[in-house]
Amino acid sequence: MAYIADPRPHHGALPARSWLRSNAPALSLNGPWRFRLSPTATAPEDFAAEAFDDAGWDDLPVPAHWVLHGDGAYGRPIYTNVQYPFPIDPPHVPDENPTGDYRRQVDVPADLAGCERVVLRFDGVESMFRVWVNGDEVGTASGSRLAHEFDVTGSLRAGANVVAVRVHQWSAGSYLEDQDQWWLPGIFRDVTLIGRPAGGIEDVWLRTSYTDGRGLVLPEVTADAPVTLRIPALNIEQVVVAGEPVDVGEVAPWSAEEPMLYDATVSTAAETVTLRLGFRTVEIRGDQFLVNGRRVVFHGMNRHETHPERGRVFDEEHAREDLARMKRFNVNAIRTSHYPPHPRLLDLADELGFWVILECDLETHGFEKLGWHGNPSDDPAWREAYLDRVERTVERDKNHPSIVIWSLGNESGTGANLAAMSAWVHARDAGRPVHYEGDYTGDYTDLYSRMYPPVTETEQIGTDGSRTPLLGCTPAQGARQRTKPFLLCEYAHAMGNGPGALDQYEDLVHRHPRLHGGFVWEWRDHGIRTSTPDGRPFYGYGGDFGEVVHDGNFVMDGMVLSDDVPTPGLHEFKAVVQPLRLTFDGADVVIDNLRHSADTSDLRFVRRDSSALAVPPIPPGGSVRVAVDADPAAWLTIDAVLAAATAWAPEGHVVATAQRPASEAPVAPARVSSGWRPFEFENGSLVRLAGRPATGPRLELFRAPTDNDEGLSDRIEDSDESRPDVSSADVWRRAGLDRLTTRRVSVERSGDALRTVDRVAAADSALSVLMETIWSADGSVRVEILPSSGWPTVWPRIGVRFDLPGDVDGASWFGLGPHESYPDSMRAAQVGHYRATIDELSVAYARPQETGHRSQVRSLTLTSGDDAWLTLTTIPDTRGRRPGFTLSRHTPQQIARAAHPHELPPSTTSYLFIDAAQHGLGSRACGPDVWPGFALRPEARTIRLRFSPGAA
Ligand code: IPT
User: Fold this and answer.
1) pLDDT tens profile 875-885
2) What is the pLDDT of residues 550-576, one digit of tens each?
3) Which atom of ligand 1 is found nearest the CA of 81?
4) How many whole angstroms from 180 Cα to the centroid of ligand 1?
5) Is 26 exposed, middle or buried (0-12, 13-18, 19+ CB in 10 A)?
6) Residue 509 Cα distances to 46, 480, 643, angstroms
7) Which fold has domain 679-949?
8) Whose CA is nearest to atom 5 of ligand 1?
9) Ligand 1 nearest atom to the CA of residue 82, by list position
10) What dihedral angle (degrees, nearest 10) is formed by the CA atoms of 392, 395, 398, 399?
11) Is the pLDDT assigned to residue 4 strictly greater than 90?
């Protein structure tokens, strides 16, 4: 078993080659295998023998992770971020090393067995495996998300065969796979027997380029026979001559926006391989990253392979729908964090159109806390493993036009082995630059890349002559970094409610051409579907599976929830990065096409208040001015929609939206309906509202902390020594914002009006807030909120709460919507008339937290089933600001106590919050805090509402 702790990557695996679609005989070994799990690696190896009796074993499907089967009988998933779930003792791993033995009878057809050679291919096994065919050992391999092939010709025969595989959860390779995700052992990608006919094609690389309207193919074919290249749509049919490019004449280029693909075949007499070609040229010119001569701006997502039931087992239909969803949300790029995905994913990216950064399977993040001491990245013993990993990465996927950058890996410190990987890639593929964020000084990579810098720092990177030193750089190194294109390989940590400030990052891209956008961390939550002992299903995160060490819900940081529901953050992203800028100017709208290479002929422009708007096609980078004859007193909303269905969205799908505000009339005086009693009081306190039991308003300064409110923002540590070591949420809890108490100071009646004054404060605190409430018989209420001096913190909100009967279960409103919005995440919100049930108003974040705030509400009707009960009209304060509302089944205090949605208590009350203000969201779970302009300082506020019966 010495091989388990051997840093060398494999014994007996064949050199890497492309994942090819070929007509040679092949046999999928996916399906049920016999399976036995042992707690250590020491079980006898006799199971590899043909005659072994596996009758007592279980069945386990391939592909699968064994911990996601057997309901705990085969162990449970483990989630860690940076921590290694085993002692840091490289290259050794514990004796407690769950080991899965697999066996399968394989009936090999004669055509396959009759090939000159047969290879056995594994597309993904975590973390290391050993293979036997008919009792003969054929090799071992590690590199979980990489493909390995073994020549099994000598052991395989036509008819009955036995393939046996032993898989170890932990191995030396695990030290190189410390990615922030679940540890999920097993044969989790396809297993295939592939026939290699005599005179067949060993490997193909059709490099393409595009210049001045013409395409070029530079074929590299490994075959022992004459090879013909055919591209029917271009009338190409010619014998391939090594090293000679094929000029294919005029072609339509490939881009993420117009992913034009040409079917091609490469054949010998014995074998035909089918590919799809996209013609594009990737190049770095100065500090510009260009494809087909034009600058690319990445509106990207970091994509892990994760599914609540299957883990990293690929499901093509789900993946296609996921990518189509990305396209619908204006995502144009994917970083395959932090390993190559299933090979089919790249076919989908070619076809649907994404700029892809294809990342190697590498991360040694757990060495960071040792000051990178002992990091494999700089240790010669691991050099072969590093090179093997990058070779397998590049060779497998080299034919994809969507891949425009190779990435060496993630968070692995720096060192000679990374430099060697980069040198290998440069020698192998001159057509794509090399990325690695950890090369801070830019010694061996082509792009400058960072994760989670604040907006200010990002801007400084885009600017010349800044005195601000760049992370880890001397002034000279910093100057060199500034000569390169810059991208944010990770930014906008999308954990829970957030992120804020997407628009601030996007704004920089348009002002500083060196900045090429970036990749949000990350696309999906990694929740694993599980259930409580009494059978209530939920999405589990770290700690839900009895792990010894884990990192909690840090794995739930996606723009899409575990059940595929797009978050409000994703809607915000879509609005912020929309490919058209629409600017209202007097009676005109100016439309800029911000796309890379597509004009706007695929779009129709629609006014929501009337009909189509005639807009001539706008070339990329172009602009038109169009007159809109619209009433300035009305809200004018223009949508750019797809004129025809695409592979990813139906006709009419909204690509971009802009809204011109109306000049709003002041709120009309109240119509006092006779006999209507808006308020009833007892002892100076509200007991009934419009005929139903109700209490309030009660001052509420607390919100259930978001993951960002709980964040410590360790990324800022590097650059900001004044960083506080407590989260905003800690500060709020210490100040007692979640446990405010009230003392009634006075109650006064004068005529029809009632005036109360309350002093609101927390135990053991001398700080307070005075709240004056004035009720008028016309149905209006005015709340003045006045903090004492000396509050040291930002506040999560300044609002009031009304407790209403539980059958108040919906709202319709005129104001910003339809989704929740916060001060630094408002771009997706449009003023309009919306309605939703109380449950639809909240987002089911994996860990319950603040949710549901609708900003700038003009009027709000509370409903009970189909009945409109009560309407609140807001009156702007003296600075024209209007409150927002939240309608929820729970208080912030209840929400803050729940770790999962199913832990929220049953509710018989509906809580209405009217907030004069909310604190921003920021990105502090892993990134910058709320931008000062969106931070809520304790301050005096006024809330004015007018109540009226029924609907507005
Ligand atoms: C960064 C990692 O690269 C990414 O994999 C993920 O863990 C992310 O953080 C947080 O969710 S590294 C971090 C130290 C910034």
Assistant:
1) 999 999 999 99
2) 999 999 999 999 999 999 999 999 999
3) 7
4) 7
5) middle
6) 61, 20, 28
7) Beta-galactosidase; Chain A, domain 5 (2.70.98)
8) 180
9) 7
10) -120
11) yes
Place of tokens 């191995």: 171
Per annotation, catalytic residue among 411, 547, 572, 850: 411
Residue 571, burial from CB neighbour count under 10 angstroms (0-12, 13-18, 19+):
buried
- Amino acid, res. 508: L
Q: Ligand 1, atom 6: nearest CA belongs to which residue?
A: 180
Tokens describing residue 800: 């009031």
411 is catalytic: yes
Q: Residue 936 pLDDT more than 80?
A: yes
- Asked whether residue 720 carries a pLDDT value surpassing 70, the answer given is no
Residues 883-895 have pLDDT tens digits of 999 999 999 999 9
Distance 411 CA to ligand 1 centre (A): 8
State the angle between helix axes of 343-352 and 383-397 in degrees (0 to 180), rounded to the nearest 10: 40
**CB of 569 closer than 8 Å to CB of 845:** no
- Report CA(926)–ligand 1 centroid distance (Å): 8
Give the CATH number of domain 2-196; options: 2.60.120.260, 3.40.50.1110, 1.20.810.10, 3.40.630.30: 2.60.120.260
pLDDT at residue 722, rounded to an integer: 52
CB atoms within 10 A of CB 796: 27
Six-digit token pair at 127? 């973390």
* Fold category of 284-524+559-574 in CATH: TIM Barrel (3.20.20)
Q: Which fold has domain 579-660?
A: Immunoglobulin-like (2.60.40)
Q: In this predicted model, what pLDDT tens digit does every residue of 481-491 receive, in sequence order?
A: 999 999 999 99
Structure tokens at 192: 């295939």
Closest CA to 785 of 943, 911, 947, 946: 943
695-698, Cβ contacts within 8 angstroms, sequence gap of 24 or more:
695/802, 695/803, 696/800, 696/801, 696/802, 696/803, 696/912, 697/771, 697/773, 697/781, 697/783, 697/800, 697/801, 697/802, 697/914, 697/943, 698/742, 698/800, 698/801, 698/802, 698/803
Helix/strand/coil for 161: strand
The CA distance from 527 to 544, in Å, is: 10
Q: Specify the residue with its C-alpha closest to ligand 1, atom 14.
A: 715
Distances in whole angstroms, Cα of residue 720 to Cα of each of 333, 450, 475, 738: 31, 16, 19, 29
CA of 177 to the centre of ligand 1 (A): 14
Question: Of 38, 73, 74, 36, whose CA–CA distance to 58 is shortest?
Answer: 36
Of 363, 391, 395, 490, the active-site residue reads 490
Residue with tokens 């007692």: 736
Q: Which two tokens stand for residue 527?
A: 């929740």
Mean pLDDT of the 781-793 span: 95
Give the DSSP letter string of 505-549: HHHHHHH-TTEEEEEES-SB---EEEE-TTS-EEEE-TTTT--SS
179 CA distance to ligand 1 centroid (A)? Answer: 9
* Nearest ligand 1 atom, CA 522: 11
368-381 residue pLDDT tens: 999 999 999 999 99
Mean pLDDT over all residues of the chain?
96
Q: From the CA of 948, how far away is ligand 1's center (Å)? A: 51
Q: Is the pLDDT of residue 747 over 60?
A: yes
Q: Say if residue 672's pLDDT is above 70.
A: no
Give the integer Cα–Cα distance in Å for 280 and 260: 10
Percentage of the residues of the chain whose pLDDT score is greater than 70: 98
CA distance 27 to 112: 8
For residue 12, report the phi and psi dihedrals to the nearest 5 degrees: 95, 0
522 an active-site residue? no
Neighbours of 232 (CB within 10 A): 11
In ligand 1, the atom with minimum distance to the C-alpha of 715 is 15
DSSP 284-304: EETTEEEETTEE--EEEEE--
Residue 681 tokens, joined: 């009081």
Which residues' Cβ are closer than 6 Å to ligand 1? Answer: 81, 180, 410-411, 451-452, 490, 493, 521, 554, 557, 715, 926
